[in-house]
Specification:
149 residues, mainly alpha, 72% helix
Amino acid sequence: MDTFWLTGAQWLAVLRIGLGLWWLESWRHKDKKTWFEGAGITWAADVAAKHRWNAVRSGFDVVVTPRPRTMAYVVVYAELALGLGLILGFLTPVALVGGLLLNLLYLVLMIHDWAEQGQNSMMALISVVALFGMSWQTWSLDSALGFFR
């Protein structure tokens, strides 16, 4: 593969690190106090309740509604863990798959609101490219520790 300036593996590492920074920013900009008091989950519950697909409504009622506080923490700290994991290149395939799943869950939840789709579509696409491009081969703890060869 011919590239300018960096090797192909290094460009994939740049993409992985950029995605990690995106997840870290998603974590950083949240008002954690308000989020942990229930604002984020309340908003999502309202969206799920109006969703056109019964599977989304019932799935939300089964998984999230009984434990809103726990789910608020899961979402916030998953974003932090994904960001740090991708930036450092630690357990990178796990972080990429986890981030892809979070993006896909959000895409399904917000399927009727196309204005919300851009960021998550791009993050999901970057996750797929970084995963299949094995972006942990360069500039990563995974590479330094000999993980995922």
